Amino acid sequence: MLITLIAHDKPGALETRKANRAAHLAYLEDTGVVEQAGPLLDDDGEMIGSLVILDVPDMDTARDWAENDPYAKAGLFRSVDLFPWKRVIRR
What we know:
Layout lengths: L1 E8 L4 H18 L2 E8 L5 E9 L3 H10 L1 H4 L3 E8 L7
Antiparallel strand pairs: 1-3, 1-4, 2-3
């Protein structure tokens, strides 16, 4: 099951993001369920959130994954939304 995670950072949290980035990237790699991922950017190119596509068995697994993300544990996000996603185009 593909799930999109769309997270928006708390205002002024860029330093929290930078301080936890290495742990977050390792988590993405180590868990083995991330299809695609990358930061959301503002007009100046600064990171302001995250978009992650997970390939997991069910929504509960996606919620658990999201809660254990080092960014979430550091209190980076103002909001996190999870949605089932249907891939229509693949390049």
